[in-house]
Amino acid sequence: MNTDETKTEFYEDPEEKKEYLDQSFRDSVATIDKKGSRNYIFPKKPKGRLYRWRTIVSVFYLAVFFTLPFLKVNEEPLFMFNVLKRKFIFFGQVFWPQDFFIFAIGLLTFIMFIILFTVVFGRVFCGWACPQTIFMEMVFRKIEYWLDGDMNEQRRLKEMPWNSYKIRKRAIKMAVFFAISFLIANFFLAYIIGMDSVLAMVKEGIAANSGTFISLLGFTAVFFFVYYWFREQVCIVVCPYGRLQGVLLDKKSIVVAYDYVRGEPRGKVKKNEPMENLHGDCIDCFACVRVCPTGIDIRNGTQLECVNCTACIDACDDIMDKVHKPRGLIRFESEENIAHSKKSKFNWRIAGYSTVLTLLIGVLAFLIITRDDVDARILRTAGQMFQTDQNGRVINLYNIKLANKTHKDIPMTLRLENIKGEITVVGNDLTVPKESYFQATFFVKIDRQLITRRKTAVVMGIYQGDKKIKTIHTTFLGPGY
Ligand code: SF4
Ligand code: SF4
Predict the structure, then answer these.
(1) C-alpha 170 to ligand 2 mean position (Å)
(2) 0.70 exceeded by the pTM?
(3) How many helices (H) and strands (E) does the chain have?
(4) Which is the closest atom of ligand 1 to the Cα of 297?
(5) Which of 156, 210, 292, 405 is at 20 to 30 A from 237, Cα to Cα?
(6) Phi first, then psi: what are they for 357, rounded to 5°?
(7) 272 inside domain
(8) Residue 320 alpha carbon to ligand 2 centre in Å
(9) To the nearest whole percent, how much of the chain has pLDDT over 90?
(10) For residue 141, is it within any domain?
(11) Alpha carbon distances (Å) from 131 to 62, 91, 240
């Protein structure tokens, strides 16, 4: 940790020493003041190389988010998570509750992925790919800068008494934030029930869909509350991933970190002072603190509140350029490397963890690709013994349950694979409608002389045309000898 008593020898000025030894950040949150009230953060508008990259990533991300609900495969959405109907579509493939094991493996993979990824690369997901951060920092915050100005103007606006100017400003911001929240809620709904259903409801009007409209307003209110007021509190207080950082990160994890070896002892640049003789590279300008959306000082070390947004890296690089020092006083680096003044390299640990991550994703992809389109279960009808017909054949009655996971009706036939006999479906039709369950009853008739035991193992094939799509093993009851 950079706040080490032994380093205070560098500080001759008692005030600087006191500030350096101030450990209050350890038991307080930047967004809560001493009285326990919300300390509203007004981060300075970030700029710089990484912020430009984040903007590019976000534009791509948002384009994907708003385009996906319109994409279809075989007239079905590419992605849909209909929890109400228990129907889930990933990359055009329909998943049903029977596929729960894939879902469980997917969830485990996801958790493993998050853990391994975080252990190696820290919380970079939060700052660069989490929808909360993307919408907050790259949509709502940008609009806020545009409407209310930068940090100081925003603070002035907050502190000024309620007059017509402030009311107008606040009303415009609320209206814009509410409209965007409503748009996001509509797309959120489209991911649940499909864009076609959403558009159909829009056509039918509010009166015909009052229940859905109220839910939509509920979602809108949640988004509005989060982006207008709650903001970084989601990452600090609510998000379970954020809360897990303490146990996931270690000294080798690559995180946004301040190079205290190079930066300390920090000190302001005084006029005509040859600073390299007196200080480390940190000129204590607080530029890194001012841009931080969670209000922390990264120089205090890795903290729970840091979402790895990298705004402080840009801010500090800009300062380093101005004072003619090398960039990277704040950078993506591990605590261990900083302590030994080394730079991160691709090492065995990163390679090993990345391989495990790739394997996990490979297993999941294999399970999804090789998943059966049809699920079938054949059971002898409960409580039924065998019968014999006038030709001396032994008859068993069976139930078949089929689930068609595809987007088209599948006409199926049943064949006996390991024994000669006849199958008669009650109702004669075994067409399973698309994306649904189907149940039927059928008789299996086998010549008496082929049944030599009380229980004969039979293998049945379920065919679509000439293509076998499933093999089922069951038993056939007979009189035996
Ligand atoms: S400390 Fe830096 S990376 Fe972390 S949240 Fe603040 S600005 Fe973003
Ligand atoms: S921006 Fe860089 S130089 Fe300025 S206070 Fe932060 S770490 Fe120090």
Answers:
(1) 33
(2) yes
(3) 19, 17
(4) 1
(5) 156
(6) -60, -45
(7) yes
(8) 8
(9) 41
(10) yes
(11) 9, 20, 15
